[in-house]
Input
Amino acid sequence: MNIPNDLLYAKSHEWLRLEKDSGTVGITDHAQSELSDVVYVELPKIGRKVAAGEAIATVESVKAASDIYAPVSGEIVAANSVLSSDPGLVNREPYGQGWLFRLKPDQPKPSGLLSPAEYSATLPH
Amino acid sequence: MADSPLAPCHRALGARMIPFAGWNLPVEYSGLLAEHKATRQAAGLFDISHMGQIRARGQGALSALESLLANDPGKLRDGEGQYTFLLNHQGGVIDDLFLYRLGADDFLLVVNASRHAEDLQLLSASGCRDVTFSGTPGSTAGMALQGPQSSRILTRLLPPSAALPGRNQITRHHLAGHDVWVAATGYTGEDGFEIFTGLSAGPAIWNAILEAGKNDGLLPCGLGSRDSLRLEAGFPLNGQDLSPEITPIEAGLGFFVDLNRPRAFPGRSVLEQQKKTGTARTCVGLKGQPGQPPPRHDYPVFQGDKKIGVITSGVPSPTLGHGIALALITTPAPACGQDLEFEVRGRRVPVKVSPRRFIPKK
Output
């Protein structure tokens, strides 16, 4: 299972890539593999204020709809609109073109997230 | 939680297992979409060992089944099967099942895993004479080979003289060194076979079929694709589209209820009344659009501002590329092609009323 070293992780299987003044969020390789073929993605509106742990997006596979949670509190500044025409990017490139949304975190230092090693330890082996 | 007798095969194939009706069963191997497509275009092999196999034997077997089931077992000749129901006295569905006549005094009932113990208890306690019901959960193995290549694959494993059963028929065969029943039935809307056998024979037969079909595009398939395939074909799932509160007439399955015979059976008077005066609810198909959120079980259905029912099963159709659903709605039901909406996450999504079979009949 691919768990890149330069990301932070939520127990609920989102990743956060911190950039200059925003963070990109997606779901992990493990999550996309568990969900299997993603066929529909619903993303939060730009400008929405979200709280850490709040369900703000939905990823649907053939089997089921799954909530996606904000890994940190902040304001949504971008959503990956390509996913509406190609939701399968979430499966094919979970850490790349399959990102879900960007947010501007309220706190410069996010808390409550896991390191790659800590996240890896939460997964079944 | 019981392991399927085929569990070692599933583990060797790297299947993802989930709990289902008291069983550990494979939900997918290579991926739901790939498995769905393989079954539509080539063939898929499904573990159905969780399906209950109840045997009714004895001189009183036919008479007992005539008084217990909603379709007419008297129509069956040796080697023929029919879809039928075990109903409660309100006409609600306890179980939907396939009944095969193996011989004059010998019937096989293939029932849902979730109702198996209850069915067996109910049949055994019916007080019918000269009949024995047997087949407790976990005592048999079964698998379904489904899809256009099924006959070709199965034929390879049988002697040249063997004749495969015709649709809804069941025949006895010797397969991979074991005696099995092969029925031309299934739950995918494709041509195919269901194979019923004993516990210990299961793995050898499973492996032999996979080997025989490896160059024909045959894939092992899990519960995930089994559900999307059955819904595209408009087949109901007990516990969702059928329940003790839903009659076969409401579910649009009146064709499989025989009221033109003298015998009484549980729920008969309710069904007669419903056939005469109609029902307050009816099951319709719903068709969504590409790019819209898929319909799911339990989402409410609206006509304008009025809530008129609920989705009983819904899925994004892998074959069609849009959502499909079965919904139980109040009558009079809008005609096919009419616009309705369902609600998901506070938002209304447009759907059209559609025939319940979403893919062409084979």
